[in-house]
Structure formats: structure tokens, C-alpha cells
Amino acid sequence: MERDVTAALAALEAHRVEVGHHRIADLFDADPDRFGKFQARLGDLLFDYSKHRITEATLAHLLTLARAAKLEERRDALFAGEKVNLTENRPALHMALRNFSGRPIMVDGRDVTGDVTAEREKMFAFARGIREGVIRGARGGAFTDVVNIGIGGSDLGPAMAARALSPFAQPGLRTHFVANVDGADLADTLAPLDLSTTLFIISSKTFSTQETMTNAASARALVAAALGEDAIGDHFCAVSTKLDLVAKFGIQSDRVFGFWDWVGGRYSLWSSIGLALAISIGPKHFEDFLRGGHEVDEHFRTAPLQENIPVLMGLLGVWYRNVWGLGAHAVIPYDQRLARFPAYLQQLDMESNGKSVRRGGGLVTMATAPVIWGEPGTNGQHAFFQMLHQGTDIVPIDFLLAAEPVAADARHHELLFSNCLAQAEGLMRGRSRHEVDAILKKQGLSADAAAALAPHKVFAGDRPSSLLLYRRLDPRMLGRLVALYEHKVFVQAAIWDINPFDQWGVELGKELASRLGPIVSDDQASTQGLDGSTAGLIEYRRSLRGA
Ligand code: F6P
Asked: What is the set of active-site residues?
């Protein structure tokens, strides 16, 4: 297998030289059907990848690479519940949380679909109770605010989705998300809230994450102080796989929603970790969200590789990362409510594929996860797009765009839509010196002034982008988008031969923070044994606080 992957990559390297001779704009001119050829659909979702530095031969080479890496076999193993998360000896079966196929999903020889449905129904019943005001606070008031306390996958998913689907939220029931151990996060979130009508969800797969446990303890103390210790049972619920630890925190067992160790943290939005979202948008919309994810699972599982959107997204990423050597990838939603989607993807992509060791333990021989970043358009246009257009680095982009707005002005949306297409076009076509000269001449600039200004107005172009165009950002569409990126990440992990489902890289920082904690807390504690910088910084802090 390894030899085949190396050969496929070498063929892609050679092919790149040839593609490098063609401008994307020229490829469009040469083939009037380019847009038709380089697109894939899933229902009304269109994935346009025609504005890339690719030809049909490129695709053929990339598919050869996918086959050499045994992508289809890996995908099938994933869906079959094999223990693909090798270092943690477990399967990765987030697809079981959105499985409407009627097919069993086996974990250790047992079908887990019944457990999944039962836990989901329990969550939905609770969500309904909150929404309908049947479940109330200790003082008898219906809940008006829900605060999810969690971090990483126990925060980013529900926070991103609640914002994306805010038009579907129940009026008068607001959701908030507290993640950072910085007390400002909790303090600023709670400042405007009435604790007597606030429900806290402690979301933590392990129920031991320092940030979450610290915020949870502080929130608990605040509620106890404001409403009395007896109010805790009414104002707290939890989502975790560690039911024993939750019980110790004092949360009633009928308010604990479980999930399973075969659901990775960054894939857990589909599980009870979505409780805040389910309360906000209601069970029906939450189920639509799950169904959107399921549609993508079926597509990923069955569509031929050349029509398979997550496969194409993953392979295009590999083309730029490994063959062109590009280290960043931007995701720019022209959809304000997807403002947190890039942050969500940062965890999904970089925590999954930010690895240097192969599944078997050897070092990787090619670059893995690029830096994923992004902000919504049009705001980004007035911030970092200058660099995207004229900077020295090329950053491939995914644009996300709806055909129609949800609960927003149609005229605004037309402008938004035009801006997105204009940026993608401008990045691809650029503007040549010849065109600039003609424009400046027409503007009446003197020859000298035009010659001085012209180089600054030239755009190299050939800056690639994909565009995901969907009807509207509703729960089903959001489910599709999230699942597409989940599987894209999986595709790249398969090519790079890494395990996307563990996250050992997060551990070192956690370990060191707990070592430094007591030294920071105690001004008398010795800093001996620490490196000079760390010791110096702690001592400088002491001096500032002393002063
Ligand atoms: O940051 C590492 C991590 O383990 C993530 O993978 C996870 O989503 C996050 O911490 C939160 O973990 P937990 O849900 O166990 O609190």
C-alpha cells in the first residue's frame, strides 16, 4: 500500500508541473462545460469545485491516490464499527447517533441503535419539558435561559449550531455557552441573567475537564448562594459518559443524559451533547439536523468516489497540502449565522488530523492538517481578503453560501450573494497588468502615474476556491454541512495514514498546567526546576500583584 501511495503522490507531483502551465480562467475558456464537469450534488446542495487548479487528469490522479490509500476499505471499516481509533481501542461511530437507515450498528457484537434512540428520547422529553414550562426552576418560574458549560467538543458544536439555527429557536428561551476557564466568560455570561430562571447544563464527556469542572463549581456556588442549596437539583443537569462522577456532583439521575465512549468529543454534537440545541430548536428540528447528517453518511458510504463530496473535498485539500505545499485552508461562510463554523471546524480538523505519527507508530512522511481558519463574509473582505488576493501565500478557500436567507432581508441577501461570487471570481481571474494599464489609461492618468501605480493594482489570480451552495441554512442543511466536513477530515486521515480519532497532543498542556497550578496559587512556592522563562514570568506576575 505504502509504495502505491508514494507512486500516486509522485505522479501527482509530475502532473502539477503540467497543470501549473494553465491558468484556471483559461481552463474555463477552453471548456464551456467546466462548471458542469467539476461539481457534485447532494439533493439541492451543490459543491462547485470548478475554480481549482485541476483538470480531469488531476482528478484521475487524486482518485488513484485514494485507492492506493485504501480509502474505500477504511471507510467501510469505519461504518462497520471496527476499532478504527487504534490508540484508544474503540470504534468511532458518531454515525450511529443519526442512523435512520434501519440497519443495526454493532459495537462489540451488540446493536447500539436501541440505546441511542432511548437516550435521545429521554433528552427530547426533557427538552420538551423545559420548552413547555413543565420543568421549572426552584422558585416556580419557567426557564428563560439555558447555560451550557463545556469546552472543546462539548461546547463548540452546540454553540456553533445554536447560533446557526437561531431563527428556529423558541422565542423567550435563550441559550448561552461558557467554555473558558477565564472567569470572565462565566461572569459576563451570567451578569444579565436571572438565576431563578436559568438552567445549567454541565457538558463533559469525561466529567473531569479542568475548565468545565471549575466553571461548573462556580456556577453551582452562585446558584446555591442566590437560591439555596436545595435549588441545585432543579437548576442543573448534565451530559456525560461518566455517570458516577456526575452523581458525585449532586445532579439527579433523571437529569443526566449519557452517551458512549465510541463518540469522540468533537463528533458529539449529535449525541446528548446537543441538549442545549435540542432545548433551543426543539426535538423536531433537532431530528431534522440528525437526518441531514444521515443523508451525508449514506452519500459518503455509497456514492462513487468521483461524485462523493467529502471525498472530493478531502482530495482537493491533499492536492494543495501535499503537492502544492500550501499550509492553510480558509472556510468563509457568506452566512452570518455560521460565524462559529470555522472555529468549530478548527477543532474537528486540527484536533483530528494535527498528527505526525502514522497509525502503525512510524512518523508521517508527508504534511498533515493545514491551519484551518475563517470568518464570515463580507466582514472578512474588509480584514484579511487583501492577503488572500495579493499576499505571497496562496490559501485555498471553501465558500459557504445560501440561495435564500432565513429570517433576513432579501435585498441584503442579494448583496451578500453577489459579494461572495465576486470574491471567488476575483481570486480566480485576478487582473493582469495589461487590464490594469487599460483601466488607468481610461481614468486619464498620465503615463508616469499609471506606470507607478499599475504594479500595485495587479492581481495574480489563480487562487482556488470551492463553493458549497445550498437552498437555506435550516437544521437539515446544517446537519449536512457538519457531516460533510467530518467525512472530509476522515478522507484526509486515510490518505495520511493517521488516526483522526485520538488527541494525545492536548494532554501535555493539561499536565503542565496542573503542575504549575499550585506554584501560581502560592506566592511562596519555589519556581526552582522550571525553565528560566516560565519561572521569570511567574515571578514577574508576583511582583506585579505585590505592587
Ligand atoms: O481538548 C481535548 C478534549 O479532550 C476534546 O477532545 C474534548 O472535546 C474536550 O477536551 C472536552 O472534553 P470533555 O467533554 O471530556 O470535557
From this structure: 351, 382, 510
